[in-house]
Amino acid sequence: MKKLIIFDLDGTLINSIKDLATSTNYALEQLKFPTHPTDDYNMMVGNGINKLFERALPQGEKNEQNISKMRELFLAHYDKHNTVYTHPYKGIPEVLKTLQDKGYLLAVASNKYQEGTEKLVNHFFPNITFNQVFGQRNNIPSKPDPKVLLEILENTNTSPEEALMIGDSNVDMQTANRANIEGCGVAWGFRSIEELKSQNPTYIIKETTDILSILNLKI
Protein backbone atom coordinates (compact mmCIF):
# COMPACT_ATOMS: atom_id res chain seq x y z
CA MET A 1 0.00 0.00 0.00
CA LYS A 2 1.33 3.43 -0.93
CA LYS A 3 1.76 6.13 1.68
CA LEU A 4 4.22 8.52 -0.03
CA ILE A 5 3.74 10.20 -3.41
CA ILE A 6 6.80 11.94 -4.85
CA PHE A 7 6.28 14.40 -7.68
CA ASP A 8 8.56 15.94 -10.24
CA LEU A 9 7.76 19.66 -10.60
CA ASP A 10 8.20 21.08 -14.12
CA GLY A 11 6.09 19.18 -16.62
CA THR A 12 4.31 17.24 -13.89
CA LEU A 13 2.74 19.62 -11.39
CA ILE A 14 3.24 22.85 -13.32
CA ASN A 15 3.56 23.86 -16.96
CA SER A 16 6.55 26.18 -16.78
CA ILE A 17 8.04 25.77 -20.23
CA LYS A 18 7.23 29.26 -21.58
CA ASP A 19 8.79 31.07 -18.60
CA LEU A 20 11.86 28.82 -18.77
CA ALA A 21 12.16 29.47 -22.51
CA THR A 22 11.65 33.22 -22.13
CA SER A 23 14.35 33.58 -19.47
CA THR A 24 16.80 31.35 -21.34
CA ASN A 25 16.22 33.30 -24.54
CA TYR A 26 16.75 36.52 -22.61
CA ALA A 27 20.15 35.27 -21.45
CA LEU A 28 21.05 34.16 -24.97
CA GLU A 29 20.06 37.56 -26.38
CA GLN A 30 22.21 39.38 -23.82
CA LEU A 31 25.19 37.30 -24.94
CA LYS A 32 24.38 37.86 -28.64
CA PHE A 33 23.57 34.19 -29.29
CA PRO A 34 20.62 32.83 -31.32
CA THR A 35 17.42 32.07 -29.42
CA HIS A 36 15.05 29.08 -29.75
CA PRO A 37 11.29 28.60 -30.20
CA THR A 38 9.48 27.77 -26.97
CA ASP A 39 8.56 24.25 -28.12
CA ASP A 40 12.24 23.37 -28.62
CA TYR A 41 12.78 23.75 -24.89
CA ASN A 42 10.67 20.67 -24.16
CA MET A 43 13.71 18.58 -25.02
CA MET A 44 16.25 20.87 -23.31
CA VAL A 45 14.86 20.93 -19.78
CA GLY A 46 14.88 18.16 -17.20
CA ASN A 47 18.52 17.82 -16.15
CA GLY A 48 19.05 21.07 -14.28
CA ILE A 49 19.62 24.58 -15.53
CA ASN A 50 23.31 24.21 -16.35
CA LYS A 51 22.45 21.38 -18.72
CA LEU A 52 19.66 23.55 -20.13
CA PHE A 53 22.17 26.30 -20.91
CA GLU A 54 24.60 23.85 -22.46
CA ARG A 55 21.87 22.58 -24.77
CA ALA A 56 20.69 26.10 -25.63
CA LEU A 57 24.12 27.49 -26.47
CA PRO A 58 25.32 27.17 -30.08
CA GLN A 59 27.93 24.66 -31.13
CA GLY A 60 31.39 25.90 -30.30
CA GLU A 61 30.10 28.03 -27.40
CA LYS A 62 29.17 25.27 -24.94
CA ASN A 63 31.89 26.04 -22.39
CA GLU A 64 31.91 26.65 -18.65
CA GLN A 65 32.44 30.39 -19.05
CA ASN A 66 29.33 30.83 -21.20
CA ILE A 67 27.28 28.50 -19.01
CA SER A 68 28.26 30.58 -15.98
CA LYS A 69 27.28 33.82 -17.76
CA MET A 70 23.99 32.24 -18.84
CA ARG A 71 23.23 31.16 -15.29
CA GLU A 72 23.76 34.66 -13.89
CA LEU A 73 21.60 36.31 -16.53
CA PHE A 74 18.91 33.63 -16.41
CA LEU A 75 18.52 33.66 -12.63
CA ALA A 76 18.23 37.45 -12.47
CA HIS A 77 15.45 37.35 -15.07
CA TYR A 78 13.71 34.12 -14.05
CA ASP A 79 13.46 34.98 -10.36
CA LYS A 80 11.37 38.03 -11.34
CA HIS A 81 9.35 36.43 -14.14
CA ASN A 82 8.88 32.75 -13.25
CA THR A 83 5.12 32.98 -12.71
CA VAL A 84 4.16 35.05 -15.77
CA TYR A 85 3.00 32.10 -17.87
CA THR A 86 3.55 29.19 -15.49
CA HIS A 87 0.48 27.49 -14.07
CA PRO A 88 -0.53 24.17 -12.49
CA TYR A 89 -1.85 21.57 -14.88
CA LYS A 90 -5.63 21.27 -14.87
CA GLY A 91 -6.81 19.23 -11.90
CA ILE A 92 -3.48 19.12 -10.07
CA PRO A 93 -4.50 21.35 -7.11
CA GLU A 94 -7.60 19.21 -6.54
CA VAL A 95 -5.60 15.98 -6.84
CA LEU A 96 -3.04 17.21 -4.30
CA LYS A 97 -5.76 18.27 -1.88
CA THR A 98 -7.44 14.88 -2.15
CA LEU A 99 -4.17 13.08 -1.49
CA GLN A 100 -3.48 15.34 1.47
CA ASP A 101 -6.99 14.84 2.88
CA LYS A 102 -6.58 11.07 2.57
CA GLY A 103 -3.41 11.19 4.64
CA TYR A 104 -0.78 10.57 1.98
CA LEU A 105 2.69 12.00 2.49
CA LEU A 106 3.64 14.32 -0.38
CA ALA A 107 7.07 15.30 -1.66
CA VAL A 108 8.70 17.09 -4.59
CA ALA A 109 11.94 15.94 -6.22
CA SER A 110 12.99 18.33 -8.97
CA ASN A 111 16.13 19.13 -10.94
CA LYS A 112 15.21 22.83 -10.82
CA TYR A 113 17.52 24.77 -8.50
CA GLN A 114 16.42 24.60 -4.86
CA GLU A 115 15.36 28.22 -4.37
CA GLY A 116 13.27 28.19 -7.53
CA THR A 117 11.66 24.88 -6.60
CA GLU A 118 10.63 26.11 -3.17
CA LYS A 119 9.35 29.43 -4.53
CA LEU A 120 7.11 27.85 -7.17
CA VAL A 121 5.76 25.14 -4.87
CA ASN A 122 4.88 27.72 -2.22
CA HIS A 123 3.38 30.08 -4.80
CA PHE A 124 1.15 27.63 -6.61
CA PHE A 125 0.28 25.23 -3.78
CA PRO A 126 0.10 27.36 -0.61
CA ASN A 127 -2.53 25.13 1.00
CA ILE A 128 -0.69 21.85 0.44
CA THR A 129 1.76 20.53 3.00
CA PHE A 130 4.69 18.81 1.31
CA ASN A 131 6.78 16.75 3.70
CA GLN A 132 9.87 17.27 1.55
CA VAL A 133 10.64 19.74 -1.24
CA PHE A 134 13.98 19.11 -2.92
CA GLY A 135 15.44 20.80 -5.96
CA GLN A 136 18.99 20.77 -7.27
CA ARG A 137 21.36 21.35 -4.36
CA ASN A 138 25.09 21.76 -4.00
CA ASN A 139 26.97 18.48 -3.59
CA ILE A 140 23.82 16.42 -4.17
CA PRO A 141 23.71 14.66 -7.55
CA SER A 142 20.73 15.42 -9.76
CA LYS A 143 18.19 12.92 -11.02
CA PRO A 144 18.51 10.27 -12.42
CA ASP A 145 20.86 9.62 -9.50
CA PRO A 146 18.50 8.11 -6.89
CA LYS A 147 20.02 9.91 -3.90
CA VAL A 148 17.24 12.49 -3.68
CA LEU A 149 14.56 9.79 -3.60
CA LEU A 150 16.47 7.74 -1.05
CA GLU A 151 16.81 10.85 1.12
CA ILE A 152 13.07 11.44 0.95
CA LEU A 153 12.38 7.81 1.88
CA GLU A 154 14.70 8.07 4.87
CA ASN A 155 13.30 11.40 6.06
CA THR A 156 9.72 10.15 5.87
CA ASN A 157 10.46 6.67 7.27
CA THR A 158 9.03 5.09 4.13
CA SER A 159 10.04 1.91 2.34
CA PRO A 160 10.47 1.88 -1.46
CA GLU A 161 7.41 -0.35 -1.75
CA GLU A 162 5.29 2.30 -0.03
CA ALA A 163 6.30 5.10 -2.44
CA LEU A 164 5.30 6.18 -5.94
CA MET A 165 7.33 8.53 -8.15
CA ILE A 166 5.32 10.61 -10.65
CA GLY A 167 7.08 12.46 -13.47
CA ASP A 168 7.00 13.39 -17.13
CA SER A 169 10.40 12.26 -18.42
CA ASN A 170 12.74 9.32 -18.77
CA VAL A 171 14.91 11.03 -16.15
CA ASP A 172 12.13 10.66 -13.57
CA MET A 173 11.46 7.05 -14.49
CA GLN A 174 15.17 6.19 -14.40
CA THR A 175 15.39 7.75 -10.96
CA ALA A 176 12.45 5.70 -9.73
CA ASN A 177 13.93 2.50 -11.14
CA ARG A 178 17.29 3.13 -9.49
CA ALA A 179 15.58 3.73 -6.13
CA ASN A 180 13.42 0.60 -6.55
CA ILE A 181 10.29 2.76 -6.44
CA GLU A 182 7.33 2.27 -8.76
CA GLY A 183 7.25 4.95 -11.45
CA CYS A 184 4.25 6.67 -12.97
CA GLY A 185 4.82 8.55 -16.21
CA VAL A 186 2.48 11.41 -17.15
CA ALA A 187 1.57 12.14 -20.75
CA TRP A 188 0.66 15.81 -20.23
CA GLY A 189 4.22 17.00 -19.61
CA PHE A 190 7.20 17.99 -21.74
CA ARG A 191 8.22 14.56 -23.07
CA SER A 192 6.60 11.86 -25.16
CA ILE A 193 4.87 8.65 -24.14
CA GLU A 194 7.49 6.76 -26.19
CA GLU A 195 10.24 8.24 -24.04
CA LEU A 196 8.40 7.23 -20.88
CA LYS A 197 7.82 3.70 -22.16
CA SER A 198 11.55 3.28 -22.75
CA GLN A 199 12.04 3.08 -18.97
CA ASN A 200 9.22 0.60 -18.34
CA PRO A 201 7.30 2.55 -15.70
CA THR A 202 4.62 0.75 -13.71
CA TYR A 203 2.02 3.23 -14.96
CA ILE A 204 1.58 5.74 -17.77
CA ILE A 205 -1.38 8.08 -17.31
CA LYS A 206 -3.01 10.68 -19.55
CA GLU A 207 -5.16 12.71 -17.15
CA THR A 208 -4.23 14.29 -13.82
CA THR A 209 -7.16 12.56 -12.10
CA ASP A 210 -5.69 9.21 -13.16
CA ILE A 211 -3.27 9.70 -10.25
CA LEU A 212 -6.20 9.10 -7.94
CA SER A 213 -7.52 6.20 -10.02
CA ILE A 214 -4.34 4.15 -9.67
CA LEU A 215 -4.58 4.67 -5.90
CA ASN A 216 -8.28 3.75 -5.91
CA LEU A 217 -9.31 7.25 -4.86
CA LYS A 218 -11.79 9.82 -6.11
CA ILE A 219 -11.97 13.60 -5.77
Protein described:
With 219 residues, the protein is α/β, with parallel strands linked by helices. Helices cover 41% and strands 16% of the residues. It is built from nine helices and eight strands. The strands form two sheets. It has a six-stranded parallel beta sheet, with helices on both faces. Strands 2-3 form a two-stranded antiparallel sheet. Helix 8 (193-197) links the parallel strand 7 (182-186) and strand 8 (203-205). The mean pLDDT is 97.
Strand content: 15-25%
Overall helicity? 40-55%
What's the alpha carbon Rg, rounded to whole Å? Answer: 17 Å
CATH superfamily of the largest domain: HAD superfamily/HAD-like
* Contiguous helical run count: 9
First and last CA, distance: 19 Å
Instruction: State the CATH class of the largest domain.
Output: Alpha Beta
The biggest beta sheet, please? 6 strands, parallel
CATH architecture name of the largest domain: 3-Layer(aba) Sandwich
Number of strand segments:
8
Going by helix content, strand content and strand pairing, the class is alpha/beta
The CATH topology of the largest domain is: Rossmann fold
Shape: globular
Identify low-pLDDT runs: none
Which strand order do you get reading across the main beta sheet?
5-4-1-6-7-8
Features:
219 residues; alpha/beta; Rossmann fold; DNA polymerase, domain 1; 2 domains; six-stranded parallel sheet; two-stranded antiparallel sheet; 9 helices; 8 strands
